[in-house]
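Weekly structure sync, notes
Attendees: PL (lead), two postdocs, one rotation student
Agenda item 3: pending single-chain targets
PL asked that the sequence for the first pending target be pasted directly into the notes so everyone works from the same version. It is reproduced below exactly as submitted, 303 residues in total.
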Amino acid sequence: MNTEDFQFFIRVADLGSISRAAQEANISVSVASQRIQRLEQNLQLRLLHRTTRKISLTEEGKTLLEHGRIWLHEFSSLQQSLKVQDKCLSGTLRITTSATFGTKILMPVIAEFSLLHPELKIHLDLNDQNIDLIQYGMDLAIRIGKLKSSTLIAKALTSNPRLLCASPAYLEKYGRPQTLSDLKLHRCILQQHEHGLTDHWNFITKMGELQHIQVAGYFTTNSGEGVRQACLSGLGISNHSLWHVSDDLKAEKLVQVLAQYPVEPTSIYAVFPNRNLIPPKVQLFLEYLLDYFQNRYPSHNLL
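Predicted structure, written out during the meeting:
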């Protein structure tokens, strides 16, 4: 059986469309259909019900997808592990992370890793929403903040300091908050995630306890960079990762507010599907990320 045809069948099943899978693979729909037909002929099984409007899995297709996905991952991992003794990686490493973090922080690390492994193709998805790794065929996600419970494996890379800031123009117009309660009287810039609105900000008191403050404002966006741009434009007070606004703070385009009330820090995680065998391309990239964030990432020298 051609494993590439099998991989393509999995993408068709995940996307629910031969045409979308064909577009993703940069092949024509007719070639895509031939690959599915070839797989069905080799297996002597009908895997898909096809109509003019949609496709659906047959019972045999559902069984193959459920058990075959695991087999394919393990076969691919075994195949790569046999080749990786000389650290020569191949295939495609698919990574997803937020747009701004990927561009500002992660891209230079990926570039270093890519130069070390020129035979490895890398696909980087920049997306401020946490996409489903299995559905979109991702090997790894780099995520920031508190993680929702799931079957995914999460590995902490480093801490992620946060702070409140505003533009000088905003502070001149609305004044500088002096206490956490003052935030309720200010325009705060909010970010919309797939799990809800970030309108509850957490702070650490002098006693080391968490204090939750509900905030409100007149500008909401689903983009972290959108929050930064709104803050630079004087639309309100924002709650940011330090790495995101460190340059703006140094240039005095933004000013830290309520520094005496530390914002609860979060963490930066590498997240990947739960597998019996972690593919060598993922394992080596994880090791490279850990080395970077633990030994070279200037997280405490950003201000």
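Discussion points:
- Residues 162-264 form a domain with the D-Maltodextrin-Binding Protein; domain 2 fold (CATH 3.40.190.290).
- The CA atoms of residues 69 and 90 lie 20 Å apart.
Action: rotation student to compare against the earlier draft before next sync.
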